């Protein structure tokens, strides 16, 4: 291994989108290093250092590595045990006029850290846009089922009714928070810039004969060339690893959201109320041919757990950076950062695929509502009797007795809930029997759920997706295709 551990392409990249996989590829990494070396040379030349136009032109013409250069770099790294210097040498072989000024005054972290910040910013943008598409798809689902009554659960025990669409808004609200947090993290990113070996810029001050203004301008120019709004005002040899904490936190938080959504969908699949997409030729089980396992949602949960724990690596790494730096951050970050974004990308693709093909079974939902609704309707029945002159305490006792009898039928005998039939047969309830059907209408138990869905979509989701950066992604219309 070199001083800087060799970059490896994470296994998860084969399942991620082409854009995200390419972003963290060796090809793009070393191409970005060369662009950073070019920016440094251009800025140094602009500020008076003797760098020839020919050197600049040769660097510009050789920003991409071909297969032969990768072989040269690998051989050099094996010999030098230092990846950055191996690539400095390799770049010089195709830009010989620049060989003496490539990496002039810089330390390895000039390319490694600045490149990481470029990758992080681009990756956050990709995640930001893909998340907007997922939000759009779930919003359409929520709107479609805004008033379909369904049994609500607390403690996974039957509770009051809600609607299928209202439940989806609970998912959407958390996704909106993730969208906000990811944008904040991206927009807050700075650049390491040109800071030298311990962050003092001493090497650049020597290059410019003690001219502090030129050193500051060099930092500004290189930052501007990489299109960052600012450079971190002070750094050590590296940018603070606390930045990685800020970057991975919203990804981990999104992982928690995705896990909750996918878990809800797995439970709904068990209830046979809502199912994820299932192809006609898909096999749910090698032994049980009838099974329709929620494998997409299970995959989301599996990867989301991985995504959530990667944040712990950033916390641990930031906490042990002694003084101006240690190298025990390197191998960890080269795994953690790409893995976090590649994993988030796969989770988003899978979540979009699920959201675009959810299958709702209204009759199953209605049957479950009918099983539980009689118990929920008891208060309405009591109130209706009181309005007709009945005594509340007496009515309550009548309903209590009948409810226990019906519960016995359900729990002990496995029969259907027959509470309403018992009410119809009891002469005590004659005054309100013609109202029973109305009292048992499920839509009378969903409160303002449909109105809440409309208000939430109109006042929160739609405005969030009006961000100009997100419009093209949302309206592109491509369906998510899984690589596996």
From TrEMBL:
Pfam families: ADSL_C (PF10397), Lyase_1 (PF00206)
Catalytic class of the enzyme: lyase
Presence of the UniProt keyword Cell cycle in the record: no
Keywords: Lyase, Purine biosynthesis
GO cellular component: cytosol
Species per Swiss-Prot/TrEMBL record: Russula ochroleuca
InterPro entries named in the record: AdenyloSucc_lyase_C (IPR019468), Fumarate_lyase_CS (IPR020557), Fumarate_lyase_fam (IPR000362), Fumarate_lyase_N (IPR022761), L-Aspartase-like (IPR008948), Pur_lyase (IPR004769)
EC number: 4.3.2.2
Subunit composition and interactions: Homotetramer. Residues from neighboring subunits contribute catalytic and substrate-binding residues to each active site.
Pathway terms, separated by semicolons: Purine metabolism; AMP biosynthesis via de novo pathway; AMP from IMP: step 2/2; Purine metabolism; IMP biosynthesis via de novo pathway; 5-amino-1-(5-phospho-D-ribosyl)imidazole-4-carboxamide from 5-amino-1-(5-phospho-D-ribosyl)imidazole-4-carboxylate: step 2/2
Protein name, per record: Adenylosuccinate lyase
Family (UniProt): Belongs to the lyase 1 family. Adenylosuccinate lyase subfamily.
Superkingdom of this protein's organism: Eukaryota
């Amino acid at each position: 291994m070199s001083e800087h551990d060799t970059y490896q392409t994470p296994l998860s990249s084969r399942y991620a989108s082409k854009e995200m996989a390419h972003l963290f590829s060796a090809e793009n990494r070393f191409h970005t290093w060369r662009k950073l070396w070019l920016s440094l040379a251009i800025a140094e030349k602009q500020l008076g250092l003797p760098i020839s136009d020919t050197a600049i032109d040769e660097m510009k013409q050789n920003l991409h590595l071909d297969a032969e250069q990768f072989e040269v770099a690998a051989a050099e790294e094996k010999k030098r045990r230092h990846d950055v210097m191996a690539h400095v040498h390799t770049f010089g072989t195709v830009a010989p006029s620049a060989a003496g000024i490539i990496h002039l005054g810089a330390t390895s972290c000039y390319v490694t850290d600045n490149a990481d910040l470029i990758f992080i910013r681009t990756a956050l943008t990709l995640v930001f846009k893909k998340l907007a598409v997922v939000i759009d798809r779930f919003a359409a689902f929520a709107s479609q089922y805004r008033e379909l009554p369904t049994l609500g659960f607390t403690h996974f025990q039957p509770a009051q009714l809600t609607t299928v669409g209202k439940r989806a808004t609970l998912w959407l609200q958390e996704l909106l928070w993730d969208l906000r947090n990811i944008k904040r993290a991206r927009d807050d990113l700075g650049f390491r810039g040109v800071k030298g070996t311990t962050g003092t810029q001493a090497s650049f001050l020597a290059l410019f004969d003690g001219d502090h203004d030129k050193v500051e301008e060099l930092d500004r120019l290189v930052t501007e060339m990489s299109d960052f709004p600012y450079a971190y005002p002070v750094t050590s040899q590296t940018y603070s690893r606390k930045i990685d904490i800020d970057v991975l936190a919203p990804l981990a938080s999104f992982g928690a959201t995705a896990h909750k959504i996918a878990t809800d969908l797995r439970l709904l699949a068990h209830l046979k109320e809502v199912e994820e997409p299932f192809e006609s030729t898909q096999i749910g089980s090698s032994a049980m041919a009838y099974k329709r396992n929620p494998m997409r949602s299970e995959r989301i949960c599996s990867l989301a757990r991985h995504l959530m724990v990667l944040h712990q690596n950033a916390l641990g790494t930031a906490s042990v950076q002694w003084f101006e730096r240690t190298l025990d951050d390197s191998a960890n970050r080269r795994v953690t950062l790409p893995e976090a974004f590649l994993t988030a990308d796969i989770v988003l693709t899978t979540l979009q695929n699920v959201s675009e093909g959810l299958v709702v079974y209204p009759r199953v939902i209605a049957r479950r509502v009918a099983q539980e609704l009689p118990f929920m309707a008891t208060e309405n029945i009591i109130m209706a009797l009181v309005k007709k002159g009945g005594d509340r305490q007496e009515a309550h006792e009548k309903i209590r007795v009948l409810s226990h009898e019906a519960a016995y039928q359900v729990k002990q005998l496995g029969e259907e809930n027959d509470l309403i039939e018992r009410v119809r047969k009891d002469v005590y309830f004659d005054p309100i029997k013609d109202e029973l059907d109305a009292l048992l209408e499920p839509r009378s138990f969903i409160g303002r759920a449909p109105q809440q869905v409309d208000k939430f979509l109109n006042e929160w989701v739609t405005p969030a997706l009006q961000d100009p950066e997100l419009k093209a992604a949302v309206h592109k219309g491509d369906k998510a295709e899984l690589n596996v």
